[in-house]
Amino acid sequence: MEDLLLKEPVQRVVKKLSEFDNSIKVTVLDSSARTASDAAQSLNTEVGSIVKSLLLRSKNSFLLCLVAGDKRCSLNKVKKILNEKDLSMASADQVKEITGFTIGGVSPIGHITRLNVYIDGSLERFANVFAAGGHPNVIFKIQFKKLIEITKGTIKEISE
Cα(65)–Cα(118) distance, rounded to whole angstroms? Predict the structure, then answer.
């Protein structure tokens, strides 16, 4: 399991975390955190404290939405914010190409492409949240306010 930390996508997350605040470490889980409920079970925490990193695609750009594990990203709300008619979830290939991560391990940080980030306001319920660290079995715990800082994200009401 430990060799997961050597994987390049995980290394990108580790580097970004250590540059931001070297007290924040990634953790390798024995079980998968591919879904929010899997992650919550592995960590013995509320599903809502798990950050889902979702890549959305509009006509000419991509946007990363960070949504609480117990909520769903509302495409209609995001469309209104962006004033876009067409918005969809990015395909698995697009996720890999734009973020450098595979679905299930998409981290809010360490992407290979610079992305705008919207953070779902419902995550504010939690002092600490858990996010993927570049692999489905790797996570990190971060204070909600530090998540905003490290992602340079904007808080928006984007869930339902």
Answer: 5
> Domain 2-156 sits in which CATH superfamily?
YbaK/aminoacyl-tRNA synthetase-associated domain (3.90.960.10)
| End-to-end C-alpha distance for the chain, whole angstroms | 35
Beta bridge partners of 131: 140
Q: Report yes or no: 48 and 159 within 8 Å, Cβ to Cβ.
A: no
Q: Per-residue pLDDT tens for 5-21?
A: 999 999 999 999 999 99
What does the domain layout of the chain look like in residue ranges?
Answer: 2-156
Per-residue pLDDT for 1 more than 60? no
Helices 8-20 and 144-151 pack at an angle, to 10 degrees, of: 110
Closest CA to 129 of 112, 107, 156, 158: 107
87-89/116-120 β-pairing: unpaired
What percent of the chain is predicted at pLDDT more than 90?
86
Structure tokens at 128: 């600490």
Residue with token string 């007290």: 23
pLDDT value of position 2:
60
How far is 69 from 139, CA to CA, in rounded Å?
14
